[in-house]
Amino acid sequence: MGAPIFAHDANAQKKAGKLMIELTNISKTYAKSGTKAVDSLTLRIPDGAIFGFLGPNGAGKTTTIRIMTGAIEADSGSVLIDGIDLAKEPMEAKRRFGLVPDTPDLFSRLRAYEYLNFVADVYGVSASDRITVIEELAARFELSDALKSPIGSMSRGMRMKLNLIASLIHKPHNWILDEPIVGLDPHAAFALKELMRAHSASGGTVFFSTHVMEVAERICDKLAIINKGKLVFTGDLEGLRELRESRGRLSGQVPLVGAPNFSAREAGMVNIESADQREESLEALFLALVEEGEQVPEEVSKL
Amino acid sequence: MRSPFISLLSLSLKSVFAIHLPTKKELASPKVLLKTFGWIVLAVVLLADFGFMFAMMDIGMHDTLAPFGMQSLMLMYATVTASVLVFLFAFITSLSFFSSAPNEALFLTMPFKPSWLLAARMATVYAIEAPIAFLVMSIAAGVYGIKNSPPFDFYVWMLLNALALPLVPLAVSYAVLVPLVSASRWLRRKNTILYVGGFIGLALALGFNWYLQTMMARIEDPVLLRKLLIDNELNFADIANWWPPAWLTMTAIGNSSMSAAFAATLANLALGTALAAAAATLFGRSYTKILANFGELAAVKGKIGRSQAQAVFAPRPVFISLVQRELHLMNREPMYFLNGPFVIVLLPVILAISLIAQGQQIQQALQQLRPLLDGQAAYLIPTGVGVFLASSTSIACTAFSRDAKAIYFLKSLPLEPRDIIAAKLVHALLFAALGIVFGVVGVGLLLGIRLVDIAVALVLAVLGAVALNICGLVIDTFWPRLSWENPMSALKRNPNTIIVILGTMGLVAGLGALSATLPFSKYSFALLYGTVFLAAGIGFGVLLFRKGSAFLRQMEP
Question: B interface mutation test: which of A121, A128, A129 has the most B CBs within 10 A?
């Protein structure tokens, strides 16, 4: 019988407060398109936090995650994972995180268990440990009956669940997830949120990108908002509200209903005073901030 | 505003014939210019190759039959050939298109009539068939025209009937396939369609090869030719009389009356169009049901129990795991398997068919070859075949292109780039070993070559195959094709595949020519080529493992 999932907590707790993922002055321009996807981005993601990474489509979220995980090289800047420089010691740094990629259909011709075995082999996970993690997580995500199936026969949601299991098979300290909620059924989304909380409670770091503001609002300890490759906010929800208030934007317009992929102008708008003076939701703050674009760098640097 | 059907038709055609013609601005880039030039040369070579084959056949047949005043039989032969070819192509293409049913199913949510959906698909198949009929018929028209100076309208009837010939086969193919696929759950799977379509396609290619070899063997003998065309139990004349589109074509081009020729041509076009329209109308609804109920891969239910788990989840060395991943991903994808590793089996089968079909001629050729086998040819011929087979699987030269969808994920794993590259190379070399055994030992036994020469050939083939496979992997590591939606683009339509296969053919032919001209002793060639292959292998290997990691790190699909 292997050790339980998130068994890293004892050591991790001791390190609480240490910056576990640190991105400094990251920039990336894609050679083919000439698009500057990430521009001088600096992020510090502390231990034991659930960190939400928000931004509209094409903002640079996936590029940032790819740089953070060594899938692509930044033009400039550095990435430290648990204090290890990703560029200098890639193997050691990559062992410190588990990644859930944004495209779940990676190896459609493999069977689910073959894929899990491959990932476990790569991380050198013992037989008993891999069995423990797979059994527990497959049961939690209701995937136990599908482990023999070809990945190509699975729905997008099932593939995402499989990737979630694969990303935790080596019990990583840092859990990085790119749009993990997309395609998940409510039960699996709930299980995922529970897992994120458990991972964070045990001292691990959760860094995830999402479009689902409600999820970010409910479970994030910290969040960052990126737009057009630039960070427009980092901090917590309260800090975001304070920023909005301090900038005297309460007379501005915020959307009444969620339309996270649209600009504030495209979404249905109401005046915030006429909206029963309700507290600004993350979604509203997000849209307003994204609308402002690049006008807030000085505030960002304060937070 | 365009009608919805025209939009659907246009989209269907564009989705199959998605040829991007470079703009003037793009052509300013030397890379784009070279690539475009390469594609044009390839297209011309392919067209010229098939054109030449049919032209030689037509000329040979015409010249054999003309002294007896039977040269018009050549036109009957061309008409029947075109009819049979388009039938086979229509059937195999229609069947293969069912594999794209999951994508096409999107149209079910749009306000299209079922008959429109089937008609649009049939139009796409027609667009593939028609050029084949056109090529065969226009070459026959050209050959006959040059030698007999027929009136101008002869060409018009030939070409108009060429356009009519594919219509009936198209209608018949769908009339057979739609009920068949509707009735069979097994056929409504992408894998099944790809394998069944692939194997039928290969069988037809082999059949066509057999047919060409058989014709070639008889073309200069008027008695044999007459038997084949008229006298045999199943002959060309019977097919021309029995198959309405062929009969109408023959009536149109063989009739001196213009009105009769016009009526026959019109009847041919009308018959084809009516049957195709009827098929689209009658089977449209069943077709949409197929689209709606098409499954990709079968899910397997069942838990992995505790007792099984220990064995199933037993850890393996990372490198073994990487090689196994390569093997699974290539050989479980029908598109990759049939056009990759399966080639090792396919090419010897084609060779065997040629031997059987052209039995006497091949025996004569072997007799002529016999004196050469006392010299360096004894080991160089098996070496050439072995090297070619070992390098024709396209495994190495598409290794990263095929992995495009997983590149980002692979790079995020704690894997040394050199291990990923080495696993890809080992995968290619495993199949190369099979190719060498089939090629060297097979040809060695066929030609009755001495054991010592087979041993020399084996060593040379191993050195050559290793060098070429590493070279292929260098090409795909440095210039992978990472943007694609269909696996076919990663392998079959990958320029790297063409470069390596044509390059290998050129190398084998070049070394063959060199061996025939250089005045060296028998085994000096082994020493020379062995040294060159070894040096090339080491050179490419150093390049691959020194620079490959950097290229892999920079890969951005």
Answer: A121
